[in-house]
Design goal:
mainly alpha; transport; single chain; 2 domains; Growth Hormone, Chain: A; 17 helices
Length: 459
């Protein structure tokens, strides 16, 4: 028993460390937007690409990352992801212009897509009991919450002391330590070593997501009626349609559409997407607002986010206990209602309100983000066969990262296209409220169906 617990502890430490650097690089870059723009000559759309090149690649490749882990072994793919992430972070720190920085961020996304789903696979195998697994996932997500909380402040301090390049270079030693720790974790037997890779599905997913986000980012700059935007929209729609058709016809698809017959699985993926969209979208908007509209330094911006990010950490760590006490049904619904409440208070941004009025809304938004992610993760993983855990984890994280990429694109477009600024902010906040309430409704209906007709321990 003690040996099993020691092994579980090693797995949890190694996997949590990887999640820390993945989330750190999602949040830390937001406080560097103004310094990057000033140093590399980027406009708002360029900054959107700096943020989204990472999240978009991450989302596009997560399904293949999970499937690759199932095919050749989660530990092997996990280690490869860490090493790719370390090399890409070094390139980010040395980038001479914003275009090279975008390319390096793409490579970071490749590394993250390899390691994150495989980290959940390692956890899934190390913790076979559902309650233990839910607690472990809560710790894993909680470490991500710590990274989220530390990201803006750590980024502000690093930029203040060493410049914006240091926020990327700091990932290199952390990733290498994570790789060393992973060598002490036992290998997980591949679940499907003879399963062919779905190359067509992967390429279509990349085109569909990339074209969709490109249309949203560039539409505000080029005009929504521009020929290039119309062509991009047509390509995105065609790629999405072809992706669904290919996945429906393949015997072993990258994204098994049969997963979505489960209301728990479908609802978990949907609420993860919406949570990522509204949280990271507004995080990007607020970062630009504090630095551009109010003229705050990266350090002051990082400090301003503390009431938000600290509550993400707290919410992540208590989510497991709240899930066991109240069930995922009530917990996720309550989380999205908290989202809506917090966002309603952020309407004050449009009136150039004092900071304390804005900060009062941050705890509700942060706590909601913290509790939703691990609750939805545990619910989705309970609906997936262990043999397909990598693919299931890939779907979950792809949903979240896709939401993040769309959020940055949508809210950045609103900030660019709708003037004056206070009107754009109001539209963004009202959109976030509407999406939060929609997610609560979808989750409630889906879990009610499961409880009524089949019964489920996630409710």
């Amino acid at each position: 028993m003690n040996d099993e617990r020691e092994y579980q502890k090693r797995v949890l430490i190694a996997t949590s460390l990887s999640y820390v650097i993945v989330i750190l690089d999602t949040s830390i870059v937001n406080v560097a937007l103004e310094p990057v723009a000033a140093s590399l000559g980027s406009d708002i759309s360029g900054l959107q690409w700096v943020v989204n090149a990472y999240t978009l690649t991450f989302a596009s490749l997560l399904l293949s990352g999970g499937a690759l882990g199932d095919r050749i072994g989660a530990k092997t793919v996990y280690l490869a992801g860490l090493l790719v992430f370390a090399c890409a972070s070094a390139l980010c720190g040395l980038a001479p212009d914003w275009q090279i920085l975008v390319v390096a961020r793409v490579l970071q996304g490749v590394g993250a897509a390899l390691l994150v789903p495989c980290s959940l696979t390692l956890i899934n195998h190390a913790f076979p009991v559902a309650r233990q697994r839910a607690s472990a996932i809560g710790v894993w997500a909680g470490c991500g919450g710590i990274a989220m909380a530390a990201g803006p402040l750590a980024g502000g301090l690093l930029i203040h002391l060493l410049g914006w390049r240091s926020i990327f270079l700091v990932n290199v030693p952390i990733a290498l330590i994570g790789a060393w720790l992973t060598t002490r974790v036992d290998s997980v037997r591949p679940a499907s070593s003879d399963r062919p890779m779905d190359v067509a599905g992967q390429l279509l997913a990349i085109v569909a997501l990339g074209a969709s986000v490109a249309v949203l980012i560039e539409g505000a700059k080029l005009g929504w009626q521009a020929g290039a935007i119309r062509v991009g929209a047509a390509i995105a729609l065609a790629a999405w349609a072809a992706f669904v058709l290919v996945e429906a016809r393949r015997k072993q698809p990258m994204l098994p559409l049969g997963f979505f017959r489960s209301p728990v699985f479908s609802a978990s993926a949907f609420v993860s997407l919406i949570s990522g969209l509204i949280f990271y979208g507004l995080f990007f908007l607020l970062s630009l607002y504090f630095q551009s509209a109010r003229g705050w330094s990266p350090l002051r911006t990082g400090l301003a986010f503390l009431p938000l990010t600290v509550m993400v950490t707290i919410g992540s760590f208590v989510s497991g206990a709240l899930n066991r006490t109240y069930g995922a049904h009530r917990l996720v619904c309550a989380g999205f209602l908290l989202y809506a409440l917090g966002f309603a208070g952020l309407v004050a941004l449009a009136d150039d309100a004092p900071y304390w009025r804005i900060a009062l809304c941050f705890p509700a938004v942060g706590f909601a983000a913290g509790v939703i992610s691990p609750a939805a993760t545990a619910a989705l993983m309970s609906a997936v066969d262990k043999a397909r855990a990598g693919v299931g984890a890939g779907v979950l994280n792809a949903s979240r990262q896709t939401g993040s990429a769309f959020g940055v694109a949508i809210f950045g477009a609103l900030m660019s296209a709708i003037q004056p600024l206070d009107v754009g902010i109001r539209v963004a906040v009202y959109l976030a409220i509407g999406l939060a309430l929609l997610a609560a409704l979808v989750w409630s209906v889906a879990l009610a169906v499961v409880t009524r007709y089949a019964g489920s321990d996630v409710c």
